[in-house]
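Deadline looming. Please check this record:
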Amino acid sequence: MTELLQDIGLSHGLAVFIAKAVGVMVVGAFGLLWTLLGIWIERKAAGRFQDRLGPNRVGPFGLIQSIADTVKILLKEDLMPQGADRWVFNLAPIVSVVSVMLIWAVVPFSGSWIGSDLNIGVLYLVAVGAFGTVAVLMAGWSSNNKYALLSAFRSVAQLVSYEVPMVLALLVPVLLSGSMSTQTIVEQQHIMYLLAVPLTVLIFLTSGQAETGRGPFDLLEAESEIVSGFHIEYSGMKFGMFYVAEFLHAFTIGVLTAILFMGGWRGPFAEDVPLLGFIYLMIKSMVAYMVLIWVRMTLPRLRIDQLLDFNWKFLVPLSLVNLLVVAFVWKILPDTDQINSFGDALVPTLVLLVVNIALIAGVGAILRERGRRERQRVEARLTAAESAAAGD
């Protein structure tokens, strides 16, 4: 597009600026339009998982339900609680959406379609992803509501905690590809990293589910405990922006999973036809996204102590061990810095897969033993209680 603008007489600097601005608007519009479709997809999938129909009245197959909901939110009154910090209160929803949209700047949609191919792309993902935590704290703190404040503190504890295993999981594709550029990570996947390090993918998806605050980690807005959470005082489109950020963030986790572990836009003829690469990326992203929906609609909510115990006592140690083992195996394998084809990647992929299967088996054995001991402890307590009751 830059060359086309220069051909019509614009200077190089102005052409680059206009091209970047158009790219930002296109990606932003895609993200917001996707949210309308994503909400419909998730509702229909939830209906199937829970043996009900989902949206089926407004439009064919309920396709226009999301638009009707958007109109309803826009027409709702915009409320401001007494004593609220007006500037921070109004900025929080914007920061929440922007924190997700900024991630898309380094998403490679194809071999030639990418906003900015940063050589520190993965580090950029971690940095801008933290803005979402700031938005939650801003909303809770500025609302002048004790329930919102309590939820914000609890949410920050959750979000910061699960960033640790996520970062450790992100280091694995960086290690295997030798780069933090998201485009390079995709190009180096002659065989999908999913087939080499499935345990890392599970860790990343689990951390991503917690980062988006969705079930079973939906303590950010646990209605039964803290009256809808940190955004209890928000109404109208301000609440809608938090809603958009959540759904878009969930899909973004699916996109990042596809890029980092499933080959991104790579596929037959994708290098020659950019649109085909974009289609491959969306298909892979939808597969990961449906897994997240499946988990959300299946598992019950955890308590906050269970959630943090699971992270610090299980997921973080597992992430550290996984990273160290993958790094050790990758180091001792020969010629891992000269992988340029499917044949070069085959043996390292098989070795890493075997090691990952052994790790998963080891973790399963440890969990099985812990479960056996817990059952024995509970049975002993029940036996003691029954004996005491019989003695009385």
Residues 110 and 274 are 5 Å apart (CA to CA).
